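Form 7-S
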Amino acid sequence: MSTAEPGLADIQAARERIAPHVHVTPICRSALLDAHCGARVAFKCENLQKAGAFKARGANNAVFSLVEADARRGVATHSSGNHGAALAQAARGRDIAAHIVMPASAPAVKKQAVAAYGGHIIECAPTLAAREAALAQLVAATGAHVVHPFTDPRVIAGQGTVALEILEQVPDLDVVVVPVGGGGLLAGVAIAIKSLRPSVEVVAAEPAGADDAFRSFGLGELQPQNAPDTIADGLLAGLGELNFALIQRHVDTILTVTDDNIVAAMRLQWSRLKTVVEPSGAVSFAALLEHPERFRGRNVVAVISGGNLDPDGLPW
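Output:
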């Protein structure tokens, strides 16, 4: 796997490559939510993407970039859920095997999604070290090609296709708000936005209980993710080194949000937009609720990154 930084040309090529395999997701709006926020808010609904999250973009770009000799060995990754399901979905589209290392604590709904796409699940302890050790052991046994959830340039380029659609769908855009965990979506979106419309502000939103990106951005040096504690289970990963370098250059600011505001955002999106949003996907809208002065009177796109929510475990 190349470690070269992806650029706009890679994102544009990714869009062509994945077009047959993913959805162009819609923009949703609500006059009531506009009034609630004091801003004009458009929601980019990646919760309606294949496999229920933006991860389908990066996974499909990586899988369909593989030469045949690599593809035949199958693909492997570690994931708390959405990337694993997306990689399994992409692998099924190319008729190759997908091996997914998942923490035993991952939500059942996400394990079920991986299995539904034909992914082979290997459970491990809920630590990054355990995930990486299990993945290394798996690759040694199978020879599968690793597709990292967020530091792979092909994955970052695929995620950046979200921004190409946003710029076409919302031409009067002032600011885009993007969730950040490992940083693949944020890096890809920021590259595309700043390459094509540099006047648009790129804001990241992160749970206060898993704020390594916020600390890293503020200190100018990559900080560890220490004992994250947040309802947003998809944003527990630490920021990747490649992603951090891209974020430093292309992102304007990072805001943190409380779990209470994440739940409030989920509930408002459920009641007003009639759309299902998982906690990690709601942090972008939570940023508008928690920091309204940053967005008042502006044209905002909040990226809903995923909708893989367990209906039996609603946080209200």
